[in-house]
Amino acid sequence: MLTIDFFTISAASLTPKVPPMSAVVAVRAVVARHVGWHASSSLPRLRRLRGHVSWSSPTATARVWARAAATSAAPPPTLDPADERFNTEVSVLALRAPRREIGGLMLSLRKHTLCRPRTHKVVHLGDGADESSLILLDEKTCAPGCDVGALPEAVRKVLLDTGVDRVDMSDTDLDTSVDLEHARVDTPRVTLITHTLVLRYDNLSAEECLSKLLPSDVTVPTGFETAGTIAHLNLRDQHMCHKHVIGAVLLDKLPNIKTVVTKIGETGGPFRTFKMEVIAGEGGHLTGPLITSVSENGLTYQLDFRNMYWNSRLGTERMRLVDSFSEHDVVLDLCAGVGPIALPALKKAKKVYANDLNPDAVAFLKKNDSRNKKQNGGKTLSWIGSMNARECVLHMVNGVGSMGTADTSVQSESSRKQSLGDSGDNSSVNPSDAGQSLPRFTQAVMNLPEGGVDLLSCFVGVFNETHWSRESLPQINVYAFSKSDDPERDVSTRAAESLGLGPNADALGAVGVYFRRVRNVAPGKYMMLLSFQLPAEAAYSSIDSMEK
Questions:
Q1: Whether 180 and 218 share a structural domain
Q2: Does 346 share its domain with 482?
Q3: 122 shares a domain with 39
Q4: Distance from CA of residue 495 to its chain's centroid?
Q5: Is the pTM of the predicted complex or chain greater than 0.85?
Q6: Which of 105, 312, 362, 368 could pair with 386 as two cysteines, CB 3.0-4.6 Å apart?
Q7: What three-state secondary structure class fits 496?
């Protein structure tokens, strides 16, 4: 066993002319020398500290960007925050005032002061009690060179109330709409000046840092999605040779992010997942789970970002759909994932059934159902399954909805527990097999934009008019993508065709059909929501007649 005394290690004991290094780096060097590099690389890496790790001199410092777990194959790049490329001079407007008045002025200007990471909003000039200080103003709303009349009202009010002794606006004339002649002169005078601010790495945003590091012909990636502690980028080919630098900067600049990934494959497969690469932080480089927790609409979801579908940008749309349900609705979520629609629907609807083809997603769905029970007022999902869409609809229609109406066949909590068994596992439970019944569903959700319209065929011919009257047929809520100039007609035409009604947009009915353009996912490509009551011609049809 190798024993290392941190107090006796020196650079001279390792190799001649080695610059000073941190304790962790020294340990790695000793282990690599006496045991081998593979052993030293298995040591836990040092989490990045706010201080610098000295390598050559006090003025040339280096920062360890290695917040990666040992399972990550992405080599952590070592960057120098003292690199002169980060040094930037910017001009900002500032109010110069006696130091004793700064506290009161900051209360009046709190919404219009400089907003930069680790940058002081107040700069003190001199050491005396009567010396002046500067209040640095916001770069966007108080841009240097603008007219005083264009400044925010709070800033103009301070200037008028305190009087202006001198104004240096970089040779810009004052706006005559501000009556400075009638400013009060019995209070301390305030000066509006242009101040030159020197910024370094710690004061720059991630985008600004990358603009300094990347070649001039490489665009700075600005858009990314976050899922809990994971930042997800879609890097272009021009970025791939700089991916580790991009990942390291984002990992450092985004305080809650522990993993940075980029998409390296198209979304596809039965579970609508995509290949991703960890370019910085924790997690396997190309394989392995990426577990994170996401808070959305008052609930918390645990998920494996690599092996199941999640899109944080749809949180508002998911809540908008849930809000459309009534307290009398019974919701069937056919593509539930980890529960971002099914679980918040428990607060609004009478009952909720959830299904997903991905067994890994279903496993997390069960955990999230239990985890959010208190937030959902003690309610949990009445049924959870892992079937394909048609099997699920057949199961729910024949096993659940054929035994009565929503008002008379509600399964009690005690009977539900009995039908689930002692384990409380509510996966793939058939209420009719257990001698119980649940209310028939009134709302069906298909949150699968890529291919959701094609899955509408799962409703064809599975309903019996004896048990499901035309009035009780469910409302269908399906998401779809469309590149058509008339996306509403395009989606309804495709839906009708999938239901065996022919390519006829009017076949879904003259009333009760609702569209919403959720978002523009790409130029000329919309994500659409189509809601309609299932037509009787499709519900009571047969597969043979559909194929004809």
A1: no
A2: yes
A3: no
A4: 31
A5: no
A6: 362
A7: helix
